[in-house]
Amino acid sequence: MINIIAIITARGGSKGVLRKNVRDLNGKPLIAYTIEAAKKCKWINSVVVTTEDEEIKAVSRMYGAVIVDRPNELATDHALSRDVVIHALEVIEKKALPEYFVLMQPTSPLRTSDHLDEFISKFLTSGSASGISVVQCEHHPYKVLVDQEGIFQPIKGWNFMEQPRQVMPKAYRPNGAMYILSPKDFRMFERFYVEPVYLFPMETEVSIDIDSELDLLIAQQILKRANKY
After folding, report:
1. Entry's Pfam families (predicted)?
2. How many domains does the chain have?
3. Contact by Cβ (8 Å): 205, 171
4. What's the predicted TM-score (pTM) here?
């Protein structure tokens, strides 16, 4: 059996949605959806939540997660996920490092254990060094303008600005729901994207990332309609 752990990063000082990781979503704290999905996944042996927040710690323990006490300097607005995971692995290493870890953000409540099972299964047979979940871009990047010293230029060219999306290649972006790689590769490169990268496309609806009160309302309606929780 491959040893795989889930690492969930959850700090207390959210800005867009106050206390969002423990906000109620259809009768459960937001973070509970991610912990439960990880615990139900057939591949994941342990679920770790790294946080500095006492309420998040209590809620996470209640749903069966192991806590890594995150230093306050890694819980600021400017702290990088990379540094948070480096610290978490240092703590986990005192017992034993897993063969792989899955990084999961608690603000993706519609990612389920079924998604995790399929994602990990396909990654393990892909021959890839890392894997990420993605969603098709809502707006095609070829139609994006960038500021180059005060002059706005299209990324690809002005001719693409008028092309219908249907004739352009499909474009995807990370949705933040799931990443997987080995601690060894992560420490070597200090990033979550290590080539070759396996991409796991997810539907737009289940890729919602709770970053505003509107996102929370949308997720609530989706869950009610699905009647899955």
Report:
1. CTP_transf_3 (PF02348)
2. 1
3. no
4. 0.92
